[in-house]
Amino acid sequence: LVSPGSRCPHCEHPVRPRDNVPVLAWFLLRGRCRDCGAPISPRYAIVEATTGALFAVIVAARYPDGAAIGLGLVLVTFLVPLALIDLAERRLPDRLVYPGAMLALVVGLWLDPGGEPGRLLAGAIAGGAFLLIAFAYPGGMGLGDVKLVGMLGLFLGRDVAVAIAAALLSGITLGIAIMSRKGMAEGRKTAVPFGPFLALGGVLAILVGPDIMHAYLRGF
Hints:
The chain is mainly α and 220 residues long. It is built from nine helices and no strands. Helix 3 runs antiparallel to helix 4 (94-111) and helix 4 (94-111) packs parallel to helix 6 (143-156).
């Protein structure tokens, strides 16, 4: 994230500040490096645009709760690259998860110190539960997922339950779709990373988690 800075994936020439404007720079350069002319994947602009759109939605959905907005924006900043890396490489790098967890503590203490004990407890419970699952079923759950769930708890507090439920539901739905297409035996062998589902659940928890938890707890 810090070093090395943005550079062309082909010639590795550092990107000039004027060429590093999210989304707009990619279009102005027509998707090519200014120095070597090699094409630059549109995924960079897509990721930037998606992140910006999520920022806008979070601010609109959680206004005027400054703490929820701050925590949500930081969380999405990490969830987008983590989901894409897990899709491409089947891993959730500690170089993103650990700084994300640390920022959750810093931002939480800064914006909502009274809610920090609850978020710490949620992170410990969620991460601990997934750790037990990883030990019980080592082939089905990686430690990267365990760490990501713990990080989600540090950002979301009790709303992490909504994120986990959404991730499990969407993962099961995709699993059923795969097995219905490939058959039970072949479908069970298809490896699908869980990180993107957790990222999706995290975004949903930011947007509607408090409402769902309130309705659930009020029902009991």
